[in-house]
Amino acid sequence: MSKKICLTGIKATGMPHLGNYIGAIKPAIDMANTGEFNSYYFIADYHSLIGVHDPKLMRTYIHEVAAAWLAMGLDPNKVTLYKQSDIPEILELHWMISCFTIKGLMNRSHAYKASVQANIESERDEDHGINMGLFTYPILMAADIMILNADVVPVGADQLQHIEIARDIATTFNNTYGNNLKLPKAIVAQDNKLLAGLDGRKMSKSYNNHIPLFSTEKELKKLINRITTDSSDPSSPKNPDESLIFDYYSQFATNEQVASLRAWYLRGIGWGEAKMELLVTLNKTLEGPRELYNELMANPKKIDLILQEGAAKVRPQAQELVSKLKHTIGVS
Fold first, then answer.
1. Model pTM?
2. For the chain, which residues score pLDDT lower than 50?
3. Class in CATH terms, 5-195+300-329
């Protein structure tokens, strides 16, 4: 019995931060390493075009994201890693399924609604600054999924709508032409950890409260020192479950180390001491991956070759599906 196809898209937005790693990269790599699925990972560079209009920056973002996933353990010998823009059939499929997508479905897209709401709150025209890339983003995502007839797509709870939209579109197409497109299923990790930012808000590059995954030791120290703490006396007992420092630490330390630091919190620990414990553990964990990341970024042609080899595996499957669908709809 053949393995099910598992697809993961990775938007090209530059070097990931710690929150990206814990919430998305680590669980996706762990899933790939189980060997349970035929796993495909793609760099969603066309999706990034919605907001990134600097070609040099776009190329850098693509390389940074690919290098980050590779450095953190994604093995191109076990999974297929490719670039969205290297599979032109995705855009052909995008148009086909666009003709079976009701506009009202796009009106309900979370990203579009959020942008409209932001405009309303700023007393601007509802569609100010909203391009068709943002509006039809879910259709392109559906095409990404359908091009491989993916069985499952790991997503966070906030991304579940995209899979539901893809299923709706596939159902409408199939109702017209027969069972040509597979209806994907979402895998929602119930225990995915969301790391808060240095100031306690959601960790985000836009808030500048994040820790880039491959910061140098000096950069890590500076950023960790920015973590919000209270003014309690160093010797007073502290609740580790209410501490950002402990929260970060527990994601990268061993069970024994976590238990030891928890006991120290309960005895009484100074915030400077806690931050130093985090720095040492975080730097030790990321030291090897950081070295590999820097090595890859210094040799972007190596990254390009991995992406090209991945595209060479995906393209024949994409061509086969699009050829079949073109015959189905009557254009060939």
1. 0.91
2. none
3. alpha beta
